[in-house]
Amino acid sequence: MIPSHQIKLFDKSILFTAKSVFRVEEARNKRANYEGLFSSNDPIKAIRFYNATTKPVGFRLRFIKDGDEFIILNKKSF
Q: How many domains does the chain have?
């Protein structure tokens, strides 16, 4: 079991615990709901996926931390 500790991602300090899950979600336009693309309990894998993902114009991506608390860490639009 991983002990809980503070980490800093995208200039936000968050609590990382064994329940933490990092997700990348997409929305096809401004009115669409977000749908999951990728999830991992390893923040490095999730950040790599988020940074490498490209989409057509009009799509939106967000990188979130979920599990024990929901936090939007970063967003980008195409």
A: 1
